[in-house]
Amino acid sequence: PEERTAAISVGSVALFAGVLAAVGSGEALLHAGGLRLLLSVQAALAVAAAIWVIAAVRTPAAFRGDPSVAVSLGWLRGDRFMWLLAGLLFVGMGVFNAVATWLETILGHFGRGGAAGYLIAIMTVAGIIGAAVLPQPVARRDLRRAMLLTAVGVTAVAFLVIAAVHDAAFIGGVLFVEGFFLLAALPVVLDWSELHAGPERAGAAVGFLLLAGNLGGVVLVLILQGLIGNPYLSLGALSAAALAGAALATRLPARTAGGALRRSRS
């Protein structure tokens, strides 16, 4: 279990590091060679990533599954626990994507739009730190629900505070705390899902949750697009989404039973 949690943390850190690299290089590439250079570099990186994935799937697995075990996806339909986690990732990844997309426009209403790139980078760096240091002690002390409640609670408060105080340095501090907890929730959720689903179902569980998270990214971005003319409504929508996440998190078990959830087989 300790190695599983560490591996998920490393993967999450790599994901957020990629986001940070994109945020940090995008504007420079755009100014250096326009949209053509930016898209060319991104396309080259995508091709390199695809080649890496092809090579990875051809590498023998370090821990082989049992080929005699056939796993269907039918168990997901009635698994309330997995749907709660999916709802939390829908909110968490949705909020992060919405902030990354619309923060410049929102802060532009307050005369702080130029600081948005730096603020998103601060939030992402904080998330990298959080994803690196929080999941293992959280798993060791079996405080997963408490961690997720903290993440959505901090999110709800953070955007209300930003709506009230528009100083760029202050917003940077708020987004650092917000990113530290919100982005660290991803490896905590993925780790908990694998503990719940078991080794045979772990791949399906993680895939399902990441699909839910990416769907949240699309939906919340579109919701904010309709509210973007009013920065207070936009920030309020982010806080409201976090409160919905808090309602989901309260329905999760406070602790795992004996260090592992009882799994219902179907």
CATH class assignment: Mainly Alpha
How much β-strand is present in the residues?
Answer: under 5%
Shape: globular
CATH architecture name: Up-down Bundle
The tally of helices reads 10
Distance between the termini: 24 Å
| Uncertain spans | 258-266
Please trace the helix and strand order, writing H or E for each element: HHHHHHHHHH
| Overall SS class | mainly alpha
The percent range for helix content is over 70%
The domain tally reads 1
Mean pLDDT, to the nearest integer, reads: 86
Report the sheet with the most strands, covering strand number, pairing sense and barrel closure.
Answer: none
User: Could you tell me the number of beta strands?
Assistant: 0
Radius of gyration equals 19 Å
Describe the structure.
With 266 residues, the protein is mainly α. The protein has one domain: Up-down Bundle (Growth Hormone, Chain: A), CATH 1.20.1250. 78% of the residues lie in helices and 0% in strands. It contains ten helices and no strands. The protein has helices at residues 2-57, 74-77, 80-108, 116-133, 135-140, 144-164, 168-182, 185-197, 202-227, 231-249. α6 (144-164) packs antiparallel against α7 (168-182). The protein is globular and about 55 Å long. Mean pLDDT is 86; it is low at 258-266.
